Amino acid sequence: MDLVSDLEPLVLAAVRVTVFLVLAPPFSHGGVPGPVKAMLGVGLALALQPDLAEGGLGTAAFLGQLISEAVIGGGLALLVMIIFAAVQSAGRLIDVFGGFEMGVAFDPMLMTSGGPFAKLYTFAATVLLFVSDGYQLVVGGLARTFAALPLGASLDLGRLASSMTDALTQMFLAALQVAGPLIAVLFLADVGLGLLTRVAPALNAFALGFPLKILITLVLGTVALLALPRVVTWLAEQALGSVVEVTG
After folding, report:
1. What are the angstrom distances between the C-alpha of 212 and each of 18, 171, 181, 204, 207?
2. The pTM of the whole model exceeds 0.85
3. Each residue of 156-205: pLDDT tens digit?
């Protein structure tokens, strides 16, 4: 009976951590095997074991807490996922305005469908999270939730919904900050080609416009990629702050 009581908080914590790791970036990447996520979830739960409450629940109460911990982990992961979707949104905006959206295909590794820039930016952000301390901020924020929301506590869904609304706003702002300058340049290029067509009607604007926009997108898209490390660091800090705010 004592063994079961000791395992109950470990299992509950492992459910919250594993659900979070399966859904939240960067661990949600398809390149991270499922067994690795499960082992990492159990390992983090073991690291938090001294701070967890004692068990001794009945079967019905234990199953109810399992569902509650899965909801907490999934809700927090969804919040982090919305914030980091800014990078993919920026890449998709570049694809749309640069004419690369015609090459849309589903990527089973990233679990996304988008043009080449959307995939490039998403993959680059995932790599940057692993090579920097971004993933540590995400995991550290998850660990703090056990102090603010101990096992058996329920997540305030109203506060979670409010934080998701704020995270969605931050996502759009970050996407526009990354892709906005390139979009403005592409718009001016379209305006310039339109005026050129009015001046010289015999000029084929479509034949000239496509390679010109592709060249501008490749050059400025690469320049915008250089600013991605600072953007990813800022998004990781925003994700940490949002998780702490929801559970605070």
Report:
1. 47, 29, 17, 13, 9
2. no
3. 788 888 888 888 888 888 888 888 888 888 888 888 887 877 777 766 76
